[in-house]
Design brief:
Strand content: under 5%
Oligomer: single chain
Order of helices and strands: HHHHHHHHHHH
Helix content: over 70%
Distance between the termini: 46 Å
């Protein structure tokens, strides 16, 4: 799990608890069901008007992606690409059982090379189109989350307004002592609307934009390395290209140095992919 995301969750919970709930005389007031139903239900209803229901399933998948560490993923992919350079003899001929790759784009690109399904002149263009499609998906998630973020505060204000209307209509000389508690209940919806938008939805929108950029870099690394493999480039060239995406500390790791030395010891040139029959 992404340490930064996990830390953000704990800090957010701590801020809400010690900054708000812990100093409230009646903390249970924040669990007012009418306020929660209005904010959560209203946001979901407005979201259904704005987006197809399939978008909510996509956003759920994004939540699972958002907590993963991109740095560890990048390093694992870099090692996998370099290891692929060391096994290019498998790429030089059609194989019945191509190797399994951890990244979907790497798997698709590798299989295209193995099957020699497209000529070299079209290979890079096709792979770049696949990359753009994935980038568009993350940006679409970011735009959807940004749009959803405007609904909770609006429904929170609606809850406060309806609560105050209800309080004022029942106001009488004998119920003046209930004004304070009634006003507090009326403002709970506003609290949840602001909290939901600023503690959850907007940070997730920013996370989607960041993931779009990070994933695009990973996919660019994959595409360029596969194109170099397809062309039969020098092994050192492919390795240096992959290493350029790593931090200086990662490039100095013993397992990376050992993998690099092993692949370079197998030869200098990568056998070019023979043309399709």
């Amino acid at each position: 799990m992404n340490f930064s995301s996990l830390l953000g969750v704990f800090v957010g919970i701590a801020v809400v608890w010690f900054g708000i709930v812990d100093h409230t005389i009646r903390p249970q007031i924040f669990l007012d069901t009418h306020a929660l139903i209005l904010v959560l239900g209203g946001t979901f209803a407005a979201g259904l008007f704005a987006f197809p229901i399939s978008k909510f399933f996509e956003l759920f998948d994004f939540l699972l992606t958002a907590v993963r560490s991109q740095d560890k993923k990048r390093y694992r992919l870099a090692k996998e690409l370099v290891d692929l350079v060391g096994s290019t003899s498998q790429i030089s001929a059609v194989t019945a059982n191509p190797r399994e790759c951890s990244h979907p784009l790497l798997q698709e690109g590798y299989e295209l090379i193995v099957k020699r399904a497209v000529p070299e002149s079209d290979y890079k263009r096709i792979m770049l189109q696949k990359n753009q499609r994935f980038r568009d998906k993350f940006l679409s998630d970011a735009r959807a989350l940004t749009a959803l973020a405007k609904f909770p505060p609006a429904f929170g204000l609606l809850g406060a307004t309806t609560g105050m209307i209800s309080m004022l209509t029942g106001l009488s000389n004998n119920s003046q002592n209930s004004i304070g508690p009634s006003m507090a209940i009326a403002l709970v919806a506003t609290f949840w609307g602001i909290a939901l938008a600023n503690f959850l939805i907007l940070p997730l929108a920013d996370r989607a934009t960041k993931l779009s950029s990070d994933e695009s870099q990973l996919r660019t690394m994959i595409i360029t390395a596969l194109v170099l493999l397809y062309q039969g480039s020098n092994r050192a060239t492919v390795i240096e290209h992959v290493a350029s995406y790593l931090s200086p500390r990662e490039r100095k790791r013993k397992d990376w140095r050992a993998l690099e030395a092993r692949v370079l010891a197998e030869g200098v040139a990568v056998p070019p992919v023979p043309p399709r029959d």
